Amino acid sequence: MCGIVGYVGHSNATGIIIEGLKKLEYRGYDSSGIALCTKEKELIVRKKKGRIANLEELIGDENLYGNLGIGHTRWATHGAPSDVNAHPHTDASGRIAVVHNGIIENYQILREELENEHGIQFKSESDTEVIAQLIGLYYDGDLEEAVFKATERMRGAYGIGVICVNEPDRMVAVRKDSPLIVGLGKGCNFIASDIPALLKHVRQIYLIENNEMVVLNANEVKIYNGDRQPVSREVFNVNWEDEAAEKGGYDHFMLKEIHEQPQVIKDTLAGRIDENGEIAIDSIHMSKEEIESFNRIYIVACGTAYHAGLVGKFAIEKLAGVGVEVDVASEFRYRDPFIDEKTLFIAISQSGETLDTLAALREAKAKGARIMSIVNVVGSSVARESDDVLYTWAGPEIAVASTKAYTTQLICMYLLGLYMGRKKGVIADDVYRRYVDELEAAPDRIREILKGEKHIETLARKLYRRNNVFFIGRGYDAAVSYEASLKLKEISYINSFATAAGELKHGTIALIEQDTLVIAIATQQRLFEKMLSNIQEVKTRGAYVLGIAKADSTEMDQQAEDVIYIPQCMDEVSPLLSIVPLQILAYYIAKLRGCDIDKPKNLAKSVTVE
Ligand code: F6R
Predict the structure, then answer these.
(1) Rounded Cα–Cα distance for residues 406 and 480 (Å)
(2) Is the distance from the beta carbon of residue 566 to the nearest atom of ligand 1 less than 6 Å?
(3) Is the CB of 401 under 6 A from ligand 1?
(4) Residue 470: what pLDDT?
(5) Ligand 1 proximity of 349 Cβ (cutoff 6 Å)
(6) For residue 105, what pLDDT band results from cuts at 50, 70 and 90?
């Protein structure tokens, strides 16, 4: 949560930081702020509740100028969203300013100590102010030293950027369990929580590791490890285009990202299926014996990534012939799961920084599991702490609601199942070929679905005033129901609920009444008749049914009030297709309801708190 940006160089930092913050607004957007150091050794701080536009309005025509500055966009944890709780926070002397992404777990103890033993008066309720006050307490002419001493006292997660008026040419930053990167410019350097903030200015970055401190001036970046020993770092070259993080003519990032799915699926498959149709995944180094030795596989993730894991369970069990459990990361880490060296732990995460997923990964690692991850952000914490990484090449996903990350996660799940099954020798050649063909056909089939966008928009006009929606499905379709329901509720704020269709009559059906909208996903041939029975059950109680079915399922026409057809495909890969019209439907319903689609209320893109 929260985004930080910092600049040190010879230009005015104000515009650079505000532009960078706008690229990080997906990380949190309940307040924002900026602190600048002037050559006259003055500290200027401006901060405001609400979106970055509010901060810009506050600054207005003021000619703020400084060659050193830090900025922040917030997702509140300690202290309600307000001007005073917004970052940057300053120390009692007003010399030092801090921006922080994360949570200081022992902030209460530190605050009491600072108040009672040092007579420091706090201005805000934020845990971050404790950092600023601690650094101020230890400051004795050397910012680096003061920051180091302060971090020795801090527990929790933090990516911080610190500046001090007495040292107007340098910035200090530290990373512990919250992402931090350094951008290497010409005659200037940057810090940020994520790459999009810096794409306009740099392509070369350093990925900062846990417990490292960085000291930057316009010409030099020094990195120190937790023992304050200098470390060298390889430059990471970013090959994204700047436009990848822009809307490219679409009204919202979400719609753009929905439309990018054919291409990013292609990118995610590229290089992983060779010219002979064999799965070749360079980044996974597991022998046949190792794969055979796994007696337990856990897939662990949160939210949409967890829903991708539900599909992954089906795929891996079927293709690799081994039992798979799927767990929500926040539960997994506290339930003392059975793990040993014969366990394969698979983390799925778009950001690679989700704290619950990372903590579950560490728990599994400590108990000897082999760690594999499916991650979108290259060099993120989850990726770095894994034995094997299978990247989803989805590019930057900016909309808070995940779309292209989900479908590329599904691709990786299928690839992994095929890879393991092939190595174990448990997939028949013809079955294997069929899967490969189906995966390769997915981009074109999704393009077909996207051509039907107008029809889905029309349906959205019909349905957007509903207050309750139920999603039902069986098998793979049940897994898709959960994701479709999450998509709708998080951006439209409609109360939506998903359940396995067969489970409906065990309680939930009590909520079905005249005109209740039920979205029934029925793409599985084997389960189609059962789904028709479940549709009948809700229709008898007055439900209005929207069916999602394959192109040849004419019976659906007779059962449902409306139908969205998806192209023919093998049942097992239908989640790649069936989710797409439901992403589009959620998008248009939210749009018609006037919702802030890319930045839904109370949410943030990267959840780096428990
Ligand atoms: C919903 C959504 C979230 C994320 C979840 C995990 O659209 O995006 O549910 O899937 O917060 O995030 P990552 O994948 O970054 O670990």
Answers:
(1) 11
(2) no
(3) yes
(4) 98
(5) yes
(6) confident
